[in-house]
Predict the 3D structure of the following.
Amino acid sequence: MAEETLHNPKLDEHPDSNTEKDPADWVSGGDPMTGAQASYLTTLAEEAKVDAPSADLSKADASIMIDELKKKVGH
């Protein structure tokens, strides 16, 4: 009897996956940024030689700023 291989969905490609959402669509996007986001933003701002962002950023705005600074510093 041939052994049946189980399908592993983790190995499938998902071009239309919902694993990456636009920060504007996040349910918690309006919440204050996390400590990890604040720390990473500070580091990226130093590398990019720009002022550190305001401490009152939302999670969504922090994520957008992280993406922008990563591009600027080449991460």
